[in-house]
From TrEMBL:
GO terms for molecular function: DNA binding. Residues 10-70 form the HTH tetR-type domain. InterPro entries: DNA-bd_HTH_TetR-type_CS, Homeodomain-like_sf, HTH-type_Tx_Regulator, HTH_TetR. It comes from Virgibacillus oceani. This is HTH tetR-type domain-containing protein. The lineage of its organism: Bacteria, Bacillati, Bacillota, Bacilli, Bacillales. PANTHER family: ACREF/ENVCD OPERON REPRESSOR-RELATED, ACREF_ENVCD OPERON REPRESSOR-RELATED. Keywords: DNA-binding, Repressor. Residues 33-52 bind DNA.
Length: 204
């Protein structure tokens, strides 16, 4: 019996996550209620709170799963890359920022606005997204460390990762808030900035 209960719990959680992702995408974060998600997932509203304490926590779970999938997809890039580390970092950031294309620009604008509020859920959302960003910076540090012998002088991996992240976020904000900027234009600008960061630091 306990095995069946655990299986039902897992299925409920999966149904909730799938319904939440669909409704968040269709209606946006602010216009989605836990009751809507519960109805679509065919569970009681109270059941959702047994798994997720808030709507923001549910959204962060979805984001975390998607980032984990990106990490899994790119482990070979981090561990096995034996060429120019700048090319590897550029490719990695290209793959990581593909996460933002899973949702519309208007959805991300809404999330960015929600993150600036001081409500408890907004603070939780902000902290959670920053935690996902730290994953990306860790990947960049790993690539630099794995390819340390490609640089003319020792590189401060933490500062380098922070600089790459800052460039990526600046370009990402421009991309999200300007509907005229295409994905290709965003990636081209990001590549240029990453190349600039490491210009003159690599062996021939």
């Amino acid at each position: 019996m306990s095995g069946l209960r655990e299986e039902k719990k897992k299925q409920n959680q999966l149904n909730i996550i799938q319904s939440a992702k669909k409704i968040f995408t269709d209606k946006g974060f602010q216009n989605t209620s836990m009751a809507m998600i519960a109805k679509d997932a065919k569970v009681g509203t109270g059941t959702i709170y047994n798994y997720f304490p808030s709507k923001g926590a549910l959204l962060l779970t979805i984001f975390a799963e998607e980032v984990a999938q990106l990490e899994n997809d790119n482990q070979s890039l981090i561990a096995d890359y034996n060429g120019n580390p700048v090319e590897s970092i550029t490719q990695l950031m290209t793959e990581f920022t593909a996460f933002f294309d899973l949702y519309s620009k208007s959805f991300w604008r809404e999330i960015m606005h929600a993150m600036t509020e001081e409500a408890e859920e907004s603070i939780h959302l902000r902290r959670g997204l920053f935690g996902l960003d730290e994953e990306a910076m860790l990947w960049v540090r790993q690539i630099i460390e794995e390819n340390a012998d490609c640089f003319l002088t020792p590189i401060n991996t933490e500062e380098a990762a922070n600089t790459v992240y800052a460039a990526a976020m600046m370009q990402m904000f421009s991309y999200i808030y300007d509907d005229s900027i295409t994905r290709d234009q965003f990636l081209h600008r990001l590549k240029q900035q990453i190349e600039f960061i490491f210009a003159g630091k690599l062996k021939d």
